Amino acid sequence: MLNERIPEFSDDYWLAHALRLAERAQAAGEVPVGAVIVHEQRVIGEGWNQPISSSDPTAHAEIMALRQAAQGLNNYRLLNTTLYVTLEPCVMCAGAIIHARVKRVVFGAYDPKAGAAGSLFEVLGTKKLNHYVEWQGGVLAEPCALALKAFFRARR
After folding, report:
1. Active site includes 88?
2. What b/e string do you get for 26-55 counting C-beta neighbours within 10 Å, with b at 16 or more?
3. Over 90: is that where the pLDDT of 139 sits?
4. pLDDT reading at 156 higher than 90
5. Beta-bridge partners for 87
6. With CB atoms 3.0 to 4.6 Å apart as the test, which of 29, 48, 107, 118 could cross-link to 25 if both were Cys?
């Protein structure tokens, strides 16, 4: 699906794609979070949580998708892109999203323990930084939250 032009689809469509990527994380024993970056209805980056398997604390789904998108465009600036992710980004990911100049973030479940789009911190969407990121949370919130709850329930 990478770089394949898809006709106009809704946020629900792209977030459902991110949910499928989250399943890859879960299959590897990682927290099930998936992310996809879209530019002009093309997937330019995909990622899922990989910090455990890669021994890399920065290997969150968003970071993996940002890296792939930047390499594909041969540019660290991801102007006019939308990042879809199943969980509200953390502070680290929000910072990377801002530095990459992502235009918009759409996420599923809110994260009251680490969210940086209003749940705990307001990093995304602040006008105090050098780039403003539009964001919308709660899209497909129930299936996104259920995937996370099921994962942690199984681990206890």
Report:
1. no
2. beeebbbbbbbbbbeeebbbbbbbbbeeee
3. yes
4. no
5. 109
6. 48
